[in-house]
Specification:
Elements: H1 2-10, E1 23-25, E2 30-33, H2 36-45, H3 63-78, H4 80-85, H5 90-110, H6 124-143, H7 155-165, H8 176-186
Antiparallel strand pairs: 1-2
Helix pairs in contact: 3-5, 3-6, 6-7, 6-8
Length: 218
């Protein structure tokens, strides 16, 4: 496939697994990284001196808290949906899905008093969580059997997701039809017919109501 051609252009003898995302160096014709956690850190600061928009999603004062959040969110939620969806036994599925929803419950409680995961500032931890939450109801709920609850059933998480989605520049990066087509058509061992569902109907652009979350009443 095309992406494999990118890998072999960087390393002609490459026979490793082809994954996304990939950060490509056009000047040196090589792959810089295919690890999302490394790429997000690079994009946070590597281009500051050549005209990137100002902003720091990994501020020094919050790094320890961000790292702790990432260490919790990745295995239990980011990867938790895949552990549930690709489980080969009932026991493995049960363990993964219970851990996933226990973790969502904890974040629902956390976001009752914080607009974002660390407070009133969007950080790397929020964007790492966003990528899973935005796919949750359209894909993971049905396709990966993560169906104890829908994300829309969590008032704080649902509002938080819409809050992030409505950050300028984010909505145009989200194509739910493309997301569904990819998952339902590519995992034929889970969905042999490759039929893509029509729903659910979701509107991430409605008011999120989280502007004053975490602020003391006036």
């Amino acid at each position: 496939n095309r992406l494999h051609e990118v890998y072999t252009k960087a390393a002609p003898k490459c026979n490793s697994r082809v994954t996304v995302p990939v950060l490509w160096d056009k000047h040196n014709d090589t792959i810089v990284s295919n690890e999302s956690s490394d790429i997000i850190r690079m994009l946070n600061s590597a281009f500051d001196k050549i005209g990137a928009l100002l902003g720091d999603f990994y501020p020094k004062a919050l790094r320890a808290e961000i790292d702790n959040l990432n260490s919790f969110i990745y295995p239990n939620i980011n990867n938790g949906v895949y552990r549930a969806g690709f489980a080969g036994t009932q026991e493995a599925y049960d363990e993964a899905v219970v851990s996933l929803f226990n973790s969502l419950d904890q974040l629902e409680e956390r976001l009752a008093s914080k607009r974002y995961l660390t407070g009133d500032t969007i950080t790397e931890a929020d964007w790492r969580l966003f990528t899973t939450l935005i796919r949750f109801d359209p894909v993971y709920f049905g396709h990966f059997k993560c169906n104890i609850s829908r994300l829309i059933d969590y008032p704080n998480l649902w509002g938080y997701l819409k809050d992030l989605y409505q950050v300028p520049g984010i909505a145009e990066t989200v194509d739910i039809d493309h997301v569904k087509a990819h998952y339902y058509a590519s995992h034929t061992h889970i969905n042999p017919t490759a039929v893509v569902p029509q729903g659910p109907k979701l509107d991430y652009s409605t008011p999120h109501g989280r502007e004053n979350t975490g602020n003391p009443p006036v």
